[in-house]
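Instructor's aside before we start: the two examples that follow are unrelated to each other. I chose them only because their records fit on one page, so don't look for a connection. First example below.
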Amino acid sequence: MRTILTSAFLLIMSLTSFAQGYRVNRTEEKKKVNIRNGELGKNIISFTPVQIIANDIFNENPDLTIGLSYERIFNNEMISFRLPVSVSIEKKAYYFMPTIKLYPKKQGLVKYAIGPQFLFATREETYSSYVTGSGGVVYEKLVTDTRSQLGFLINNSVNFTFSKALYLALDFSLGLKYFDSMPNRNNFTGISPFGGNGNNSVSQTFQLNFNMGYRF
């Protein structure tokens, strides 16, 4: 986990340095004048070719996903709403993470944003349940069920707009998963396949992604 976070930090710093150099070297071009004049589009459609999601950092392996998102920047250019939808490439899992992004300054070449992000996750899960049969014999049974999870994170993102239409971004979130539907569905009292505290358990969660898209 520490290696992933360190790599993310180094990647963010590298892209930020590149974008700053790009702005300094090309400030005389017309498209940079347009960017400074606030002529950027307020709609962003982007594709996420790689995303890492862990709904329980210490007890589950991270999930690898791909996704699409739509972001609408409001007229003041300092608040936006983003709706990303991701699909796991390893399991039958889906993630919806609506986000409110707060920009300290109006739109431009390199912009940082922070804001609340909500996690809605659902996936198909197979686990062992213990059933008492005839004669009091307890045996193991495999059960496939739908697992739903809810969480809240703080989102941090760095946007790079190299032209009026080209958009790149790094996106990182850290927070808590506070609801998990699966434990209370276990058929054997006192044994939970996903943690002994049931739905009252709280676990740390994070997501990291790179996305690129079209701005209009």
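Example two begins here.
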Amino acid sequence: MTTARDIDMSIRILLADDHKLIRDGLRALIAGEQDMSVVAEAGNGREAVELARVHTPDIVVMDINMPDLNGIDATKLILKNNPDIKVIALSVHSTRRFVKEMLKAGVSGYLVKHCAYEELATAIRIVIKDKPYLSSQIIGTVMEDYATDFKSDKSSVFSLLSSREREILQLVAEGLTSEDIGSRLFISGKTVSSHRRHIMKKLNLNSVAELTRYAISEGLVSSEY
């Protein structure tokens, strides 16, 4: 029987994924582990940052593709606010770009989603001991980056745009107006419009539709939006 004392001593986990079905599955998995408990769930990146601040979990299981704020930039903010938190990336992506950017953001582990249910508990127990954990599908990608001496990808959205510009690009691609974005980011709509013009100039794009297609191609937003 699990007691209150057991819960207090368990590994405290925040689940961040925009699909409730995934969160429910992960929560059920963790519920079967006596040394783990889910303290909060987030459906978007910005909510994950706030819940991490409020609950100070030991581990954040972070999806990469989420609305409002992508998992890469959300991870950077969480670790900036509290470097003691461990983040495990959870994604459908095993491509070099996403793996590299999440590792640069400071994650301690990286799981491919279709393996998550088999590997998550193991990954959590390894990461909590300050050791890294990578799915087998990810190791080859990391080794490839070492082999190429981690040459910078100058075409990546994470190289071309600042974190603020990526935030605005994502929200524009999700269909928010300049006023809505300004309200969410506590800046004026005029400032948002100025940022958007700079983004379009940097990317050599001429319309919101082109910005949206670019954001989807770079993985900032899902094609569902």
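The radius of gyration is 18 Å.
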